[in-house]
Amino acid sequence: MSEALRHPLPSRLLPQDAAALQASLLGLRGRPVELDASGVVQIATPCVQVLLSAARSWREDGVRLGLAAPSAEMLAVLAHLAVDPAALQSPEA
């Protein structure tokens, strides 16, 4: 088992950032990744959808995707969208 790569999420994830977020995550696919969400102050629904899709891809690949220290702002948006933070993660295979 290899150590997870720590990948900080941008502080602002606006709708127009969804494609760039998707591209950056695709470049990490197949490797264990720990998403550092501690600095997120704004996250839009399209970016949450990208993170949900990434978690599903990592689960299908049997690779760990973690979410580290989600900020209060991020947790508030997830709660508003009725998204459990655990849904943005993939357990270790």
Question: What does the secondary structure layout of this molecule look like, with pairings?
Answer:
Elements: E1 5-8, E2 12-13, H1 18-26, E3 33-36, E4 42-43, H2 45-61, E5 65-68, H3 72-80
Parallel strand pairs: 1-3, 2-4, 3-5
Describe the structure.
This protein is an alpha/beta fold and 93 residues long. It has a domain at 7-14 and 33-88. It has 3 helices and 5 strands; from the N terminus they run E-E-H-E-E-H-E-H. The protein is globular and about 30 Å long. The model has no long low-confidence stretch (mean pLDDT 95). Residues 9-83 form the MlaB-like STAS domain. It holds the Pfam family STAS_2. InterPro entries: MlaB-like_STAS, STAS_dom_sf. It comes from Amaricoccus macauensis.
Could you describe the largest sheet, including whether it forms a barrel? Answer: 3 strands, parallel
Which strand order do you get reading across the main beta sheet?
1-3-5
Q: Average the pLDDT over all residues and give the rounded result.
A: 95
Structural class of the secondary elements? alpha/beta
Shape: globular
Q: List the uncertain runs.
A: none
> How helical, in percent, are the residues?
25-40%
Give the DSSP E fraction (strand runs of 2 or more residues): 15-25%
Please give the count of helices: 3
- What is the CA-CA span between the terminal residues? 9 Å
The total count of strands amounts to 5
State the order of secondary-structure elements, H for helix, E for strand: EEHEEHEH
Organism: Amaricoccus macauensis
Domain MlaB-like STAS: 9-83
Protein name: Chemotaxis protein CheX
